[in-house]
Amino acid sequence: MSLLAQVRLTRGSLVLDLEVAAHEGEVVAVLGPNGAGKTSLLRALAGLLPLTEGRITLDGMVLEDPGATIFVPPEQRRVGMVFQDYLLFPHLSVLENVAFGLRSRGVRAATTRARGWLERVGLADLADVRPTALSGGQAQRVALARALATEPRLLLLDEPLSALDVTIRADTRRDLRRHLANVSGIRLVVTHDPLEAMALADRLMVIEGGRLVQSGRAAEVTARPRSRYVADLVGVNLFRGRAKGTEVELETGGALTVADQAHGDVFAVIHPRAVAVFRQRPDGTPRNVWPLRAVDIDLHGDRVRVRLMGTVTIVAEVTPAALADLGLAEGRKVWAAVKATEISVYPA
User: Fold this and answer.
1) Domain of 273: which CATH number?
2) pLDDT digits (tens, 9 = 90+) for 218-275
3) Terminal CA-to-CA distance of the chain, rounded, Å?
4) CA proximity to 66, closest of 78, 80, 49, 83
């Protein structure tokens, strides 16, 4: 059982053109910056945005194929969706909200089945309450129960935790992970939060500008980022250039000396903790040394991230004590050094 989709559509300035493949039991997180096309992708799969071109099949059934004039309406697709703001019907009780999809499909004993789902999400005692009386976490669980009650083969969740207060988000994330693990089918979760993505999903899909730029398990994506967006999520320095042996000429100017031989277009990753910062040019023979200027200083927990610009632009991570010893401040000139063995290089 699987979802296979070629999604091509235009919405304003966004041109969405990508392929999606997901399989039974899999939870896939869709990550990307604002305007990347994440929500448009979910709405296309649900049938709420028609394709310009492409094809969507679920468990071997064609849901949409403009070239063959096939379009299965949203209510006839075995697809459930949890919207970012949940979109509960304010004039209906919690129980009636959960039963709505079942009744729309003509399911007998819709109320009984809806009560069962409220019990599963721990809200049976709120069956007669209106949505306006619910907390954010409760509303999220009602929306999830409503989507799951119809037993969808494909469950779509659009930023399911973004509307929640940070104080309850961690607990709700654990609850959501448990519920997703206990239902069958295929689950796609849109999020902008890498922690949320890695906690909920088996696999990550990264979308930028309507295109798929990277896909794989979290460890694979974070170890080898292929875009600035992913590198920023992971918190590493990413460079692109052309390698010849142990030298990499960077697209942005400057060069890196690396430990391993490489050839052709490559990415190079340097963790900020591998960047050593000095007041004076360091002694010894570090292979990568640059005179740079501090342009931004940010405290991250017990570490300080310093953005340095010059021949290269790189972020270094130091302790507060080191920051004080170096007398680092915005505009201060320093030297930065990176050992060749600290640079990871892989094909672009």
Assistant:
1) 2.40.50.100
2) 889 988 999 999 999 889 999 999 999 999 999 988 899 999 999 999 999 999 999 9
3) 33
4) 49
Structure token digits, residue 168:
């309850």
The CA-atom distances, in angstroms, between 255 and each of 284, 304, 314, 330, 332 are 19, 26, 13, 25, 23
Torsion of CA 117, 121, 124, 128, to 10 degrees: -80
Distances in Å between the Cα of 95 and the Cα atoms of 115, 124, 161, 176, 266 are: 7, 9, 22, 20, 55
Amino acid identity, position 230: V
Tell me: do 120 and 264 sit in the same domain. Answer: no
Instruction: Compare 304 and 85 and report the one with higher pLDDT.
Output: 304
Claim to verify: residue 338 and residue 226 sit in the same structural domain: no
H or E element in which residue 325 lies: helix 320-326
pTM: predicted TM-score of the whole model, two decimal places: 0.84
Whole-angstrom distance, CA of residue 74 vs CA of residue 92: 22
CA gap 152, 82 in Å, rounded: 12
Structural domains counted in the chain: 2
CA 325 to chain centre: 38
DSSP β-ladder status, 186-190 and 154-158: parallel
Name the residue range of residue 277's domain: 236-347
Q: With contact defined as beta carbons under 8 Å apart, do 59 and 75 qualify?
A: no
Last residue of a domain, one of 232, 255, 290: 232
Q: Which amino acid is at 282?
A: P
Write down which residue in 232, 254, 281 finishes a domain: 232
